[in-house]
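Researcher: Let's do a round of design. I'm pasting the structure tokens now; please hold your answer until I've finished.
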């Protein structure tokens, strides 16, 4: 098992098996983000796609998600969409 010091969890945790995003951002995520933190991002990303009604096939959507991913892991956190109300737990 590969471990990393996760920038999101601030502890050693199981690392990803491969870079989950192309380019430099994907390399940084692979080296510094755990599987657990990546799963948290995927849930956040799904919420962003749904709340903003984004189409992941469009380049502007992928660029937006890459920017949010950068903030989520390396820049103090990504914000929830304006007016977002979490579903009842």
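Researcher: That's everything. Go ahead.
Model: Designed sequence:
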């Amino acid at each position: 098992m590969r471990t990393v010091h996760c920038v999101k969890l601030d502890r050693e945790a199981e690392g990803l098996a491969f870079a989950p995003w192309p380019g430099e951002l994907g390399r940084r995520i692979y080296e510094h983000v755990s599987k657990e933190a990546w799963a948290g991002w995927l849930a956040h990303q799904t919420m962003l796609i749904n709340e903003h009604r984004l189409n992941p096939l469009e380049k502007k959507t992928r660029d937006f998600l890459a920017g949010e991913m950068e903030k989520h892991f390396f820049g103090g956190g990504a914000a929830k969409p304006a007016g977002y109300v979490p579903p009842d737990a």
